[in-house]
Amino acid sequence: MSGDPREPVIRAAGCVLWRRGPGGSVEVCLVHRPKYGDLSFPKGKLKRHEEPLAAAVREVLEETGHHCAPGARLPSAHYVVDGRPKVVDYWAAEATGGSFSANDEVDRILWLAPDAARTRLTQPRDVRQLTALLDVLPAS
User: Fold this and answer.
1) What is the C-alpha separation between 100 and 103, in angstroms, rounded?
2) DSSP β-bridge partners for residue 70
3) How many CA atoms lie within 13 A of 54 on its CB side?
4) Is the C-alpha dihedral spanning 124, 128, 133, 134 positive or negative?
5) Which domains does the chain have, with CATH numbers?
6) Would you give the DSSP letter of residue 130?
7) 3-state secondary structure string, 89-108?
8) More confident residue, 132 or 6
9) What percent of the chain has a predicted confidence (pLDDT) above 90?
């Protein structure tokens, strides 16, 4: 990762939100952010003094309308945004209820089978979190 070492790291957190679909199959949630025109996992910047896991759960609710039960810690993503290093901490999180309503950040969500999600993710780096989720999910 490159970036000016004098610039503070941008800290963010998110979840790979999942649920059991028809027949017990796994579905993962991707969010579409019109500002960036991308499909990714729900995530966002930490508020001042906010713990990463609390931020991840908050972002899931804000972006998807779904409550969740966080589970295993997944790999963090490290990349550079506007010359500054960014670290996004991720968790697996099972959807426990709620419903989506379009908002300023996210105009739609998609619940997809993992193979379909893998091909729809905009950033190849997000595949690492998806793969890690599949490694930690309980068998159905």
Assistant:
1) 9
2) 93
3) 6
4) positive
5) 10-136 (3.90.79.10)
6) H
7) EEEEEEEEEECCCCCCCCCE
8) 132
9) 90
pLDDT tens digits along 22-43? 899 999 999 999 999 999 999 9
> Is the four-CA dihedral 96, 101, 104, 110 of positive or negative sign?
positive
Comparing C-alpha atoms, which of 123, 137, 124, 103 is closest to residue 28?
Answer: 137
User: Is 122 exposed, middle or buried (CB count within 10 Å of its CB: 0-12, 13-18, 19+)?
Assistant: middle
For 117, phi then psi, to 5°, come to -60, -40
- Dig out the tokens for 43 from the structure: 């995530």
What distance in Å separates the CA atoms of residue 55 and residue 130, rounded to the nearest whole number? 19
- Percentages helix, strand, coil for the chain (3-state, rounded to 5) are 25, 45, 30
CA distances for 120 relative to 2, 12, 102, 130, angstroms = 27, 22, 20, 12
Give bridge partners of residue 73 from the DSSP assignment.
91
For residues 78-108, one letter each, b for 16 or more C-beta atoms within 10 angstroms of the residue's C-beta and e for the rest, the string is eeeeeeebbebbbbbbbbeeeebeeeebbee
Closest to 52 in 3D by CA, of 109, 17, 13: 13
